[in-house]
Amino acid sequence: MTLEDLFPDGLSALQIGLAVLSVLVGWLLSRFARKGVLKLTTRTPGISDSVAQLAARFTQYALLLVGIGVGLAFLGANVQPLLAMTAIAVVVLILVLRGVADNFAAGVLIQSRQSVKIGEEIAIDGPDGEIRGKVQELNGRAVILTTVDGRTVHVPNAALLTGVLVNNSRHGARRSALEVRIARSDDLDLDEVIGIITDAAATVDGVHTRERPGVRISSVSPTRWMLELQVWHHPLHGATVVSDTVRAVAEALEAAGLRSVVAPEQSTPPLVPPEPY
């Protein structure tokens, strides 16, 4: 493509001057718009620096391209070759940046709505089951998690926005349940046993005092009681609190002369079956 193809009628000084002016105005407007977007995003809660920078650069380049396009129009450019080149460029850009644009838009929604915050523990559906981890970073492409076993997971923003998201930290507390199987005793009734269990759980470090431990009766048979102990704790301290509670309750029941099995609810079945009580 030559200049004669783009400008078949020649150029005048006025056309050149208007074209240069339009490009200059577009450049100035793009600079001011970039600063304005940065100021606006800093005042909007939940938008990270990476997302703000990406939005500012996009606005700047878009206005600059508009100024260049207006300048070419002043020059009387033949629009057909330009339209063809623009259409090809747009198609290629859409194919290449489709995923990036989706993740960027989803990232803006996530951070503006604050459905996820840094430091919170969340659970999402992964390719091999549930993924649970602590949010370390929010950016324009993904949410970065650190799992309980030390792995780093990059979750695309679009997948997080459209998938099932469980926020374990937003409430400020989390409830865990323990299964308690106790052989029936002639010396103690069920209410006394429940008192032993709740008192032992209340002494565990990390168990919340504003929501006292509660016990639900699952089943009663001639040989045993099956109970469910519920305790509230910090969302990120569940494993430690549950472990300490299992130990404290088991020791309290043993001190009372009761044979029992205490285990976290939905735990992995033991390799050796428990005694039948």
Can you give a write-up of this model?
This protein is of the alpha+beta class. It has three domains: 3-113, Helix Hairpins (Orthogonal Bundle), CATH 1.10.287.1260; 121-167, Roll (SH3 type barrels), CATH 2.30.30.60; 174-264, 2-Layer Sandwich (Alpha-Beta Plaits). It contains seven helices and nine strands; from the N terminus they run ααααββββαββαββαβ. The strands form two sheets. A five-stranded antiparallel beta sheet has the order 4-3-2-1-5. A four-stranded antiparallel beta sheet has the order 7-8-6-9, covered by helices on one side. The longest helix is centred in the middle third of the chain and has 35 residues, at 79-113. The protein is rod-shaped. The termini are far apart. Residues 267-277 have low confidence and may be disordered.
Labels describing this entry:
Helix Hairpins, 5-stranded antiparallel β-sheet, 277 residues, SH3 type barrels, alpha+beta, Alpha-Beta Plaits, 3 domains
Q: Can you summarize this structure?
A:
With 277 residues, this protein is α+β, with helices and mostly antiparallel strands. Helices cover 48% and strands 22% of the residues. The chain is built from seven helices and nine strands; from the N terminus they run ααααββββαββαββαβ.
- CATH architecture of the largest domain, by name, is Orthogonal Bundle
User: Got a strand count?
Assistant: 9
H/E element order: HHHHEEEEHEEHEEHE
Kindly report the spatial arrangement of strands forming the biggest sheet. 4-3-2-1-5
Q: How is the secondary structure organized here?
A:
Elements: H1 3-6, H2 13-43, H3 49-74, H4 79-113, E1 121-126, E2 129-138, E3 142-147, E4 152-156, H5 157-162, E5 165-167, E6 174-183, H6 190-202, E7 214-220, E8 224-233, H7 238-255, E9 260-264
Antiparallel strand pairs: 1-2, 1-5, 2-3, 3-4, 6-8, 6-9, 7-8
Helix pairs in contact: 2-3, 6-7
